[in-house]
Write a structure and sequence with these properties.
Helix content: over 70%
Distance between the termini: 24 Å
Largest sheet: none
Shape: globular
Mean pLDDT: 88
Strand content: under 5%
Low-confidence stretches: 1-10
Structural class: mainly alpha
């Protein structure tokens, strides 16, 4: 028997409310684990991997560029993960697919921690690193859409933004955990971090994965997908149907997400290598600032999402885009000042508050743009296509533009400001969705 559809109900039954809480917890914990694993690589790419896997590149940025190139490989794989797991999620269900994504991510991350260095295995070491990075990319490409849908499709109209935002909160929480683990291992000194500390960080991901799988297996399928299954409305070829009938919405998702995604990876990945090249110990200050900013964002995301339930998704996203375009310049001025208090303040404002506004409405916004039978494929594909075009190459582009400008960050800041304007325009031309019924197929 299909449970009552919360989206259409005036209230929620106790059973539906209990399933909603379980779905929100599953979405949150799953994304925390997935993003912990994924962010470990971005931190390692800035601080550890260049020396261990790319020692033959020049010390003047060449090894860092090579490490960030492998970082981008995971993003290139994400659209393929979105297509694969989006298809499975719309055909077989959200719950089953999310178990597979979490297993793939946990296994890939654990094996990265087991890899030999270039000094031990030669060219085989970076090759294996790229293969496992592809595994991470495939997993994360399918994770976000499913996690967001688990929360949104168990929720009800008027609070979908708030419920879906817990999948978003998993991102700063994963970032906090990843940076916290690296900082903890760093207490053993640089030699320990280079030899064993970074490996322990990756191995710990397996412990988190097992915990996440236990939680995820206890969640029921979403009532909206159950209804689609029982009425025989499941799409035979979800990806094909999305590309034929929903391509405009997919492109709008890409455009809306572009600035948020690129900006986030500049704030959390590239700034570490920028600071490390600027002055000894500055990367530590910035890393602490990132953690503080992420802690703040974990609280502001539900707040912004709740506001999007009241004001609409579009006003919140547009406000975030506008503020980020302006705020990126003082952030790098704060880093150049080498004043830790200013760095923390800038990170709290830009990462904790402004990026939260850009990111918080996305789970509900993107889910509401697609019908149930195509929702996993459509939302995941738009999300997945954005990441290699925006976030995946953002640290690489940033490093290139800073080197091109003689080590100064302002050309790179201008690049981010321009793409914020483009994302703002995409939000403007998108229809508002916060009052839309998502249980009625049109």
């Amino acid at each position: 028997m299909v449970s009552p559809i919360p989206d259409e109900a005036a209230g929620m039954s106790p059973a539906a409310a209990k399933e909603l809480r379980k779905a929100v917890l599953s979405a949150f914990m799953g994304t925390v684990i997935e993003w912990y694993d994924f962010f470990l690589y971005s931190i390692a790419a800035a601080l550890v991997l260049p020396k261990l896997f790319f020692p033959n590149h020049s010390a003047q940025g060449g090894s860092t560029l090579a490490a960030f190139a492998t970082f981008a490989v995971g993003f290139v794989a994400r659209p393929f993960g979105s297509m694969l797991f989006g298809h499975l999620g719309d055909r077989l269900g959200r719950k089953t697919t999310l178990v597979w994504t979490l297993t793939l991510m946990g296994g890939s991350t654990f094996l990265i921690g087991c890899l030999p260095s270039y000094q031990t295995a030669g060219i085989l070491a970076p090759i294996l690193l790229v293969v496992l990075r592809i595994g991470q990319g495939l997993a994360i490409g399918g994770e976000w859409g499913g996690a967001a849908l688990m929360a949104v499709e168990h929720g009800h109209r008027g609070q979908r933004g708030r419920h879906g935002s817990w999948a978003q909160v998993g991102v700063p929480a994963g970032l906090i955990a990843a940076n916290g683990m690296f900082a903890l291992m760093g207490l053993g000194g640089e030699d320990f971090l280079q030899q064993w500390g970074w490996r322990i960080c990756f191995w710990f991901g397996l412990v988190l994965t097992v915990s996440g799988l236990i939680i995820r297996k206890r969640v029921t399928e979403t009532p909206l997908f159950e209804k689609t299954t029982q009425t025989g409305a499941v799409a035979r070829s979800p990806l094909k149907e999305v590309l034929r009938s929903q391509w405009r919405q997919v492109l709008l998702v890409v455009g809306i997400k572009y600035a948020e995604n690129a900006g986030f990876y500049i704030l959390t990945a590239y700034v570490l290598s920028y600071a490390k090249a600027r002055a000894p110990g500055l990367d530590g200050m910035v890393q602490r600032g990132i953690v503080v900013g992420a802690i703040v964002e974990a609280f502001t995301i539900p707040l912004w999402a709740s506001l999007s339930d009241r004001w609409g998704r579009r006003p919140v996203c547009m406000l975030g885009d506008a503020l980020f375009a302006v705020g990126i310049f003082p952030l790098f001025a704060a880093i150049d000042s080498q004043n830790e208090a200013l760095i923390w303040l800038a990170m709290v404002v830009l990462l904790g508050v402004v990026h939260g506004a850009m990111y918080a409405p996305e789970a509900a916004f993107f889910a509401e743009m697609f019908p149930t039978k195509l929702r996993y494929s459509g939302a995941s594909l738009g999300y997945g296509l954005t990441t290699p075009l925006a976030g995946g190459i953002a640290p690489f582009i940033a490093a290139y533009l800073v080197n091109l400008n003689g080590g100064e960050p302002w050309l790179m800041c201008g690049y981010l400001a321009v793409i914020c304007v483009l994302s703002f325009f995409c939000v403007v031309i998108t229809k508002e969705t916060h009052q839309k019924s998502i249980s009625v197929e049109t």
